[in-house]
């Protein structure tokens, strides 16, 4: 049984209670487009189980998460014709974490997009 928090918005997305634009799914990992993208193709990759921060992820999930990051990273770069890609990840409020279900931001970048992250 995967850990779950009934009040967590990402657990609700994993369970299909809240819709999302899914871009990748495996047994233990889900990726969908961010509802407030900082750039076109901004995607979130997360374990389906509820782990609050990066430091709580069981090591056996690491390979599957890394595979997902690689596949989704390539896909969003191709789909947007990006020149680059940022991988970002926030832990705890002090570092800007708003949703306390660990997730990785993949943000396609263009040389001239002027974004300051
Ligand atoms: P954090 O600041 O926790 O690293 O990022 C949370 C991200 O989740 C934000 O970029 C925010 O736009 C995104 N987000 C919050 N609620 C939803 C939602 O209901 N659906 C989707 N697709 N993204 C969400
Ligand atoms: Zn959750």
Automatic annotation (TrEMBL):
Q: Where is this motif: Histidine triad motif?
A: 101-105
HIT domain ranges (all copies): 9-116
Superkingdom is: Bacteria
One annotated GO biological process: nucleotide metabolic process
Q: Which residues are catalytic? A: 103 (tele-amp-histidine intermediate)
Q: What is a GO molecular function of this protein?
A: catalytic activity
Recorded protein name is Protein hit
Origin species, per record, is: Pseudodesulfovibrio profundus
Task: Please give the first and last residues shown and the length of the full protein.
Answer: 1 to 117 of 141
């Amino acid at each position: 049984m995967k850990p779950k928090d009934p009040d967590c918005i990402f657990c609700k997305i994993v369970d299909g209670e809240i819709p999302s634009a899914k871009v990748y799914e495996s047994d233990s990992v889900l990726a969908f487009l961010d509802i407030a993208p900082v750039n076109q193709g901004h995607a979130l990759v997360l374990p389906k189980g509820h782990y609050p921060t990066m430091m709580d992820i069981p090591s056996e999930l690491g390979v599957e998460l890394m595979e997902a990051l690689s596949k989704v990273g390539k896909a969003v770069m191709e789909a947007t014709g990006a020149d680059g890609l940022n991988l970002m990840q926030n832990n705890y409020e002090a570092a800007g974490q708003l949703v306390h279900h660990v997730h990785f931001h993949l943000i396609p970048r263009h040389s001239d997009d002027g974004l300051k992250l």
